[in-house]
Amino acid sequence: RCTKQVSIRNIGPGYRRRAECTECFEKFNLAVEGADVLGQSVGQWRQVAREEGERLNARRQLQDARRHERELGIKVGQPLPDNGACKHYQKSYRWFRFPCCGRAFPCDMCHDEQMDHVHEWAS
């Protein structure tokens, strides 16, 4: 018989699952009929859960902010603004992606006008 120990998260009374050992691949049934809280009190567990929830919310907000930064400023399948030309270079239709913010602009001057930082060219 296998003696491998594993940690299982998010279980509670009434939990039933058929699983397989990751060490010996023996199949087993896991059923939790009841649970006793040992050590910390229920109030302490609530505090831990609240802190974990706040940490997850902060992480989601950071990920959303990063995702917003990565937006290009243009949409796929839509024509470029002014057919890709800008007021600085009317005959140029190519756009540049700037590594400082990951966004695309028709020229460096357009980037500097619209963003709150100075442009940086790729090396």
TrEMBL record:
Entry keywords, A to Z: Metal-binding, Zinc, Zinc-finger
Domain CHY-type: 79-123
InterPro entries: Znf_CHY, Znf_CHY_sf
Name of this chain's protein: CHY-type domain-containing protein
Keyword Zinc: yes
Keyword Iron-sulfur set for record: no
GO molecular function, one term: zinc ion binding
